[in-house]
């Protein structure tokens, strides 16, 4: 499965596994570097997904949906 096809939750699970492996310290140096690089890619992907969601929420809250939400709250 490509990283771009991962859900945020799947990427976070993989990232947690990588962190655990690196914290154990039983990984050969070359493998640790490879694992670390994969972790950085997953971290960036998670950050990008969160930023995308934040941008979508900002658009919703500053667009017509905010007006509809405000009207519903006043009733």
TrEMBL record:
GO cellular component terms, A-Z: cytosol; exodeoxyribonuclease VII complex
Gene3D superfamilies: Exonuclease VII, small subunit (1.10.287.1040)
Keyword Cytoplasm: yes
Keywords: Cytoplasm, Exonuclease, Hydrolase, Nuclease
Subcellular location: Cytoplasm
Gene Ontology biological process terms, A to Z: DNA catabolic process
Enzyme superclass (EC): hydrolase
Reaction equation(s) it catalyzes: Exonucleolytic cleavage in either 5'- to 3'- or 3'- to 5'-direction to yield nucleoside 5'-phosphates
Pfam families per record: Exonuc_VII_S (PF02609)
EC number: 3.1.11.6
Subunit structure: Heterooligomer composed of large and small subunits.
Classification via PANTHER family: EXODEOXYRIBONUCLEASE 7 SMALL SUBUNIT
Function comment: Bidirectionally degrades single-stranded DNA into large acid-insoluble oligonucleotides, which are then degraded further into small acid-soluble oligonucleotides.
Similarity field: Belongs to the XseB family.
UniProt cross-references to NCBIfam families, sorted A to Z: PRK00977.1-3, xseB
Protein's name according to its UniProt entry: Exodeoxyribonuclease 7 small subunit
């Amino acid at each position: 499965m490509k990283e771009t096809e991962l859900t945020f939750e799947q990427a976070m699970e993989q990232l947690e596994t990588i962190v655990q492996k690196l914290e154990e310290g039983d990984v050969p140096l070359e493998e640790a570097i490879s694992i670390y690089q994969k972790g950085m890619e997953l971290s960036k992907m998670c950050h990008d997904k969160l930023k995308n969601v934040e941008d979508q929420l900002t658009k919703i809250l500053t667009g017509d949906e905010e007006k509809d939400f405000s009207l519903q709250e006043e009733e």
